[in-house]
Fold:
Amino acid sequence: MNRVSTLGLALLLVSGCSSSRVAQAPVEPAPEAPAPPVERFDAAPYVDEPAPVEAELTHDVPERLLRNQAGAGTVREVGGFRVQVFSTLDLTEAAAAEEEVKAYWQTLEASAPESVSGLDEPAVYRFFRQPYYRIRVGDFPGRARADRVAKLLAQRFPGAFVVPDRVRVRN
Structure:
């Protein structure tokens, strides 16, 4: 190799290892500015009294909802009991028996024994299920009341007995 090329190569190597960055002195951070003073606010001198209320508040919510009685007075059908007092094939006999049961209950209202005191006049139903017309009394959700009414009705209608049925009850 010749001398110029060796020198060029050495120069090339030396220039490749050098940096193009200029050396600088370390920079010191600027001193911090003092924090602005915190403003304090005292609300005590500015207390407001509530405005007097002269109008009565009205709303659209029904009273029964406010008293948690949304279902009060509604009728629903539940499993319960009735007292069957009569069964026949003839419609006219069934109608006559229905009227007789209603009349008998009205006579009992004045002299009802303590075992059924507090019972309202039970509803009297006439059902037709092929081939019989059936006369049933009451809407009793519990068997105990149905048994008491069955004993009362058995005095006049000896074949009266308690039967399970779908009954209407008022909430």
Notes: The radius of gyration is 50 Å. The CA atoms of residues 79 and 166 lie 5 Å apart.
